[in-house]
Amino acid sequence: MSPNPIYDVVILGCGPAGIQAAIHAARKKTSVLMLGRLNKSSLFWAHVENFLGMFKTSGEEMLITGIAQATGFGAERMEEDALSIEPVGRLFEVTTESGNVIGARALIIATGTTRNKLGVPGEKELLGKGVSYCVECDGGFFRNEDVAVVGGQSGAAGGALTMLYIAKTVHVVCEALEVSPALQAKLRESGAIIHEGAKVKAIRGEKGVEALELADGTVLPVSGVFIEQGAKGVLELASSLGLMLDDSMKYLNTDKKQATNVPGVFAAGDICGAPLQMAKAVGEGCVAGIEAANYAKNLKLSQEGADPETVE
After folding, report:
1. Which parts of the chain register pLDDT below 50?
2. Contacts of 125 (CB under 8 A, 6+ apart)
3. Partner residues linked to 92 by β-bridges
4. Which residue among 37, 39, 121, 281 sits deepest, i.e. has the most Cβ atoms within 10 Å of its Cβ?
5. Are 280 and 293 in contact, with CB atoms under 8 Å apart?
6. Model confidence pTM above 0.90
7. Which pLDDT score is estimated for 3?
């Protein structure tokens, strides 16, 4: 059964790349939905002085103005992240934090790529030896073991719920849960052990992770630590959709139309690599918005039996 509602273009991320993509896709008279939290964009906390036509400007003000532009052209917005994405025929099924299931003819990934590290002893030394930044990638290696998921946003909450099907015990360590009420309730009602108001002091172990030490002196005996301090990242998305990464395994490969190797999936902004600058993100967002809208229109026409070549 197809998900409902179905949008022509669903955009993951509402930073400069995602908003610019929404503006251009909406202006092509397609139905557009933006997902993401505005204050999670790195631009939100920055000041801009190297963008054409602007002196020093608040990033927060630019984002708020951009959202108003996009919605003015007809784009819709949900202040929550995507938890999972699955291909369904020629559509994509996006499940959000609150459990909404949304269909998309085309996807634009503009989530950025920053991996927020903890910066604690043992994190670097035990990377790949029990420390991971991707539940979808590495969760299966910890079947019937005790693990901890560090973070309070959607990546951590979704990761913890996934690990409950794999691990013996799942600890969630965070200063605060910053997810939708529905996802928060689901996590609290699950079998996960939540350590809210907690900070990580160190990750302990010799040849592999043996324990997670918290700032208050609590020691959690675990063999795996998943650091998920943000929304779903490039590794998780690549894992679920079969997207091709570059050699660094940090960025998505795209062509000049911002298309990935998966038909109907486009990407823009920092997730496509350096330079990590707003000017580049906006340009790529423009291209991705136009191309995704064209793809969605052609797909709709082909499904209706019309000639897709009529859409430019």
Report:
1. 1
2. none
3. 87, 104
4. 281
5. no
6. no
7. 62
**Model pLDDT, residue 23:** 98
pLDDT confidence of residue 232: 61
Total structural domains in the chain? 2
Distance CA 294, CA 291 (A): 5
Span 171-211, pLDDT tens digits: 999 999 988 899 999 999 999 999 999 999 999 999 999 99
Looking at 227, 252, 278, the residue that finishes a domain is 227
| Same domain membership, residue 237 and residue 110 | yes
CATH number reported for the structural domain that contains residue 93 in this entry: 3.50.50.60
Could you tell me which residues come within 8 angstroms of residue 299 by beta carbon, excluding any fewer than 6 positions away? 90, 105, 106, 264, 308
In a domain, 45, yes or no: yes
Q: Are 184 and 158 in contact (CB under 8 A)?
A: no
Q: Are residues 12 and 28 in the same domain?
A: yes
Cα separation, 240 vs 93, whole angstroms: 11
Domain's final residue, options 192, 208, 227: 227
Query: Are residues 167 and 38 part of one domain?
Result: no
Parent domain of 75: 6-114+233-310
Q: Can you give the pLDDT at residue 1?
A: 46
Residue where the block lists tokens 């896709």: 25
**Do 243 and 105 have their domain in common?**
yes
Distance CA 142, CA 167 (A): 6
Q: Which two tokens stand for residue 283?
A: 């340009």
